[in-house]
Amino acid sequence: MENGMEKKEIIAQFAVAGRICSVEEYGSGHINATYLVETEDQGTKANYIFQRINTDIFRNVDQLMENVTGVTSYLKERILEKGGDPSRETLQVIPLKTGGSYYRDGQDCYRMYQFITDATSFDAVERPEDFYESGVAFGNFQFLLAEYPADTLHETIPDFHHTGKRFEAFRKAVAEDPLGRAAMVQPEIGFLMEREQEMGLLTGMLERGELPLRVTHNDTKLNNIMIDNQTGKGICIIDLDTVMPGSSLYDFGDAIRFGANRAAEDETDLSKVSLDLSLYELYVKGYLEGCRGALTGTETALLPMGAKMMTMECGMRFLTDFLLGDTYFRIHRKNHNLDRCRTQLALVADMERKWQQMEAAAGSC
Prior knowledge:
Layout (H helix, E strand, L loop, with lengths): L3 H8 L7 E7 L7 E9 L2 E10 L7 H21 L4 H4 L13 E3 L2 E7 L4 E2 L7 H17 L18 H14 L9 H9 L6 H7 L6 E3 L8 E4 L5 E4 L6 E3 L1 H12 L17 H15 L5 H5 L1 H22 L11 H18 L1 H10 L1
Antiparallel strand pairs: 1-2, 2-3, 3-5, 4-5, 6-8, 7-10, 8-9
């Protein structure tokens, strides 16, 4: 799309009523190109989210949108059953006028959602209550989808949280060391090698049926929750591109990794990196309240391990990319991926120091 007219021509393929008034860039996402569309029909205005899907990352858009439409349709039914408002509590996919969930123009693919009014997403934890509400919202996501056949979902990014395979890729990068960087990261390599036995724990339990296969969001950052402007409650989970089959522990763990660290993800002063136990406990409380008994006892007992494994996996991915020449994660300074790796591994070490408190928090809830 080179100009506004082309955008409007594509938007006109979707089932929206009235005149397209404006199309403006929107949000802080880094994957898809996102726009806010305003329309007017006989004096009534409406807003929509319009996106160009990143097909470099999501190469099978049919499967991606099958996941999104399947999950959102199911959520709509469950929300209506419980007397809720699906127009605010789940994403509403706007279909094409000719049917279908997205529009293809050559290599480019586009979709539209109904805009959720009077709600805000936050990029960082500004108030502890917001982190708690995000826990409730993601727990409620698990509760509502507890009976959804997770095995029917496509893996939009294969083996995304298969920590064992991530470890094999890491070990291969260390062995090949194409840029000669392994010598400067021996402490980090050693840290991960010492924990090799833990790498396949969660995926192994899933494969053996010791953990239930769940619908997982896989990007449980605070900014993927819409917070109602009036009530302060988390009302809707957004950004469903990475919805896949997996473990509830993936979603819980990634939320803790991102939200309960007292330091930034790429903090260079590792003395600032620590697990904020008060935020951890708040999220555990919110998550389990939102789940409303949907989790098994094994899942609840392994919540601390979910946090540790997702943090360790992320650190390992940063280190793998550093060893291979920073080809996956975008960097903004020299050794940026190494800084990110060191922050994650420092957080893992702090979790290990606070392990008893983490287990006690899960047990008490």
